[in-house]
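Folded chain entry
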Amino acid sequence: MLFNRMETGRASISDAVYLEVITGLHGTSMPNVLAAACLAMVGAITTYETGDRGTAGLTVAGVAVAIVRLFEIFAFRRRLMRSPQLGRAEATLWERRYVAGTIATASVLGVFAARSIVLGDALCSVMAIGIGFGFGAGVVARLALRPVAALLDLVAIAAPAAIVTFMQPDLRHVGLGLLILMYVVASFEMVRLSFNASINQITLKRQFEQLSRADPMTGAANRSVLATDLPAMLAAGPLAVHTLDLDRFKDANDRFGHPVGDALLRQVAGRLRAIAAADDLVVRMGGDEFVLVQRAADDAEAMAQRIVQSISAPYDVDGQVIELGASVGVAVAPEDGRTAEALLSRSDKAMYRAKESRGGYVLARELRMLDTTASGQIVSEGLAA
């Protein structure tokens, strides 16, 4: 039940928040450095006091794991410096590497503590168990959103020492073993509470993100979304930008009133979403102007035709049959522009040309051809003169 809840919560994390979580895991190398330094110090003292080669080997293994983990953290940072865009699949790979490192560290610390208990040096055992408990506290703090990994780490730390203590017949060792087990239970309870609190915060964050990106009247994306999503969509490949303005909307709004005008805008947004593909973007720019960003750039003209036909079909609002039209300007990347600003500007100009022609659609490339022809004529006339 608990793990089902946790897995459901993990799945609900958006890609952006998930990347934020993974970046946070790699945000600092200091805990790893301190754990290695503590292990090296306690390992050296224990080896010196007891002459145990097993302790020396575990110390070397722990320091080696810490060095490998440092390289992994620095590699992740270099990857983000090259490009902050990180897909979920790649982020998952980085997460698995990080978790594997924490489990390896926890395993070494757990066996190290168990070895110290077997050697019978009280102070060395206290120091070794203290390192394990300290690492466990860090696990609770840093891996709350990865509860399965946190549980594996806590078990890896505590299990070897608990097994060794329960193998001893005296009451003191049994008491120590029980304390270690209670520490694991209490730590995982803290992970559970922190996980639930974090998931609730993430859910609220996603709701606020969605509200900040949506036009409250129509439910379409608002114009601020273009500033963030259109450059990313451009980076992914060719696309088409359709800028459209409603014809005769002002007349309908003045005649039937603003509530009817609002209902018309909602229906227009609904029709645009209906003809858009799942990975297309429908944006209300404000007033009666919309933008549809289409992934399938090779189908741009056909999409423009569908937009005009769909928007021009009659509307029924509270028994009133209303007819509108649409003027659409189409700019295709990369032919008409390679930046979001260029595409929006050229599709906007094409839309105004369509409006001058009383509706329909105009392709930005047609305007470019007209401009080129006009420039050629001016040059020819100048040469002739």
Notes: Strands lie at 221-222, 239-247, 281-286, 289-294, 315-317, 320-322, 325-333, 360-363.
